[in-house]
Amino acid sequence: MKFKIGLLFLLITLGLHAQDRDATEMAINTQLEKWHKAAADADFEAYFGLMTKDGVFIGTDADENWQLDDFKAFSKPYFDAGKAWSFKTLERTIYHPKKSKIAWFDELLETQMGICRGSGVMRLDGKEWKVQHYVLSIAVPNENVSELTELKKAHDSLLIAKMRAN
Description:
alpha+beta; six-stranded mixed sheet; 4 helices; 48% helix; globular
């Protein structure tokens, strides 16, 4: 009888932890969807309000490692013109250790550049999950890597020389 009660207690406890985890992952997913929608709607305040004050956005170009204020300055003309960017989620995986104020994720997105991969870190800021670090990459099929490498060879050579000189 004690075994059955212990087993029942364990199952209830595990179920409650799973519910907490599911609720956290749903909250993170909702915030990411709001973030992408704010960009699609060119809503500057909403978009940047969903990032932490020390947020970082790493874009598809090797020169795009934006600290928040620089990213805002770069992005403002696009938002002001009513044409930021539109990313639609194809799939997303969220990783969240229990009781942590940090989570990370990866996602595949349908974008104006075709399929892209986003990955990042979310941080619980007060009671709200916000994007702290985001990396956007263009997904390139393996069979096209050689062609792409040749296409960007001259640009990369110049950038590598510039970076090594610093």
